């Protein structure tokens, strides 16, 4: 099986300040780095800081702050079946926050460089739980994405905008979920047919009160039943399951996920027919966020002032406007919700939550359905 890879990892150079933050800066094709940082991935101005819970209704939630277009970003050509991914910058190498990961795609109406992502998005990949029956593991390595530096999915024919995202939920119980994502611009050659799945809008894919992004991993829960966002499009992939009893990758419309029923997204799916406009380019947007820190002692201030976030410039971490607000030892007790364990997994150095989307659905949406322009 061929997958698109979205690399996610932990920070190294800035680990003393912010151990839980990361971003994606370099394209991977079939497992190998391609080009330089930001050559094929839209450069944003958030640096390695996450998008916070209260910002998910903003337009910047599509490709990140300052990445509404990609005029200065090149387009890389790949083939259906190639592995495509986005690699973390700043030397990060492994997700260490609990939470799901997912990949969204959106069709560019003409040039992907000018596309702002305002069209429909549909989900093609989600990574859930790969370990079952352990409440402690739900806080760490039960998640399929744990300690991985990439998110993988199969590249269908002619897709234009791909958004890979990781949602860290270690602070979600206190309305502190965090989102990590980026966008790469890619042209996919080949294809057949012209059908495109209906999709959702970003922002709008999640609601502030969605259970999936307000979920607590600090009680006795061993499953993650409320998955964010829409179902995976027909023919898309799910790795793991809501209860961890399934650890492999299944195709939407194929094998059931785990032993428990999936509670399909709390967010309303803003459905529309996105099959009208055709183009030769597509951008891969990286939503894969990295989970960071293995065992923080105090549930900390997950936010960290983003106005002080370091800007990623050409792969070099340039701290702009002063030091990041989240500093070692500046932990703030997030408070324990019902069933929360305020001392079990906290943030001494300002960690972040990220959230992933996930639902499975049936069918084969890209095999034999996509035109050479899609």
Features:
374 residues, mainly beta, three-stranded antiparallel sheet, 16 strands, 0% helix
Describe this structure in words.
By secondary structure, this protein is an all-beta fold. It has a single domain, classed as Distorted Sandwich (Coagulation Factor XIII, Chain A, domain 1), CATH 2.70.50. Helices cover 0% and strands 21% of the residues. It contains no helices and 16 strands. It has strands spanning 4-6, 24-29, 32-34, 51-52, 76-78, 84-88, 101-106, 121-127, 151-153, 161-168, 178-188, 232-239, 249-251, 282-286, 311-313, 316-318. Strands 4, 5, 7, 8, 10, 11, 12, 13 and 14 form a 9-stranded mixed sheet that branches. It has a 3-stranded antiparallel sheet with strand order 3-2-6, with no helix packed on it. Strands 1-9 form a two-stranded antiparallel sheet. Strand 15 (311-313) and strand 16 (316-318) form a beta hairpin. The chain is globular, with a radius of gyration of 18 Å. The model is unreliable at 1-18 and 254-374 (pLDDT under 50).
| Biggest sheet character | 9 strands, mixed
Cα shape:
globular
**Percentage beta strand:** 15-25%
Note the run of SSEs as H and E: EEEEEEEEEEEEEEEE
User: What is the CATH architecture assignment?
Assistant: Distorted Sandwich
Please report the distance between the alpha carbons of the first and last residues: 21 Å
Oligomer: single chain
Helical coverage, percent range: under 10%
How many helical elements?
0
Compute the number of strand runs. Answer: 16
Low-confidence stretches: 1-18, 254-374
Structural class: mainly beta
CATH class: Mainly Beta
């Amino acid at each position: 099986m061929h997958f698109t890879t979205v690399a996610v990892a932990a920070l190294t150079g800035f680990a003393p300040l912010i151990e839980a933050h990361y971003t994606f800066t370099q394209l991977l094709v079939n497992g190998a780095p391609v080009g330089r940082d930001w050559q094929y991935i839209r450069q944003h101005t958030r640096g390695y800081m996450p998008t916070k819970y209260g910002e998910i209704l903003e337009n910047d939630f599509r490709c990140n702050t300052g990445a509404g277009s990609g005029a200065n970003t090149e387009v890389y050509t790949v083939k259906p079946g190639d592995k495509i991914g986005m690699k973390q910058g700043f030397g990060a190498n492994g997700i260490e926050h609990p939470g799901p990961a997912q990949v969204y795609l959106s069709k560019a109406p003409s040039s992907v460089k000018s596309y702002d992502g305002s069209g429909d998005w549909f989900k093609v990949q989600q990574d859930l739980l790969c370990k079952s029956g352990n409440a402690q593991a739900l806080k760490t390595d039960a998640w399929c994405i744990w300690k991985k530096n990439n998110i993988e999915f199969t590249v269908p024919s002619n897709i234009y905008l791909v958004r890979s995202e990781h949602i860290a939920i270690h602070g979600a119980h206190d309305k502190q979920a965090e989102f990590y994502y980026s966008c790469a611009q890619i042209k996919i050659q080949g294809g057949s047919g012209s059908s495109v799945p209906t999709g959702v809008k970003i922002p709008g894919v999640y609601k502030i009160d969605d259970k999936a992004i307000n979920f607590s991993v600090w009680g006795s829960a061993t499953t993650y039943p409320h998955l964010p966002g829409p179902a995976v499009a027909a023919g898309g992939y799910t790795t793991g399951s809501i209860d961890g009893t399934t650890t492999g990758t299944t195709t939407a419309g194929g094998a059931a996920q785990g032993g428990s029923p999936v509670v399909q997204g709390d967010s309303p799916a803003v459905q529309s027919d996105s099959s009208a406009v055709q183009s030769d380019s597509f951008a891969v947007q990286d939503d894969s966020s990295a989970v960071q820190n293995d065992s923080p002692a105090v549930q900390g201030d997950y936010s960290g002032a983003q106005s002080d976030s370091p800007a990623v410039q050409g792969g070099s971490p340039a701290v702009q406007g002063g030091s990041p607000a989240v500093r070692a030892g500046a932990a703030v007790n997030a408070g324990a919700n019902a069933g929360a364990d305020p001392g079990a997994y906290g943030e001494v150095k300002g960690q972040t939550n990220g959230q992933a989307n996930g639902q499975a659905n049936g069918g084969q949406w890209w095999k034999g359905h996509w035109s050479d322009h899609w």
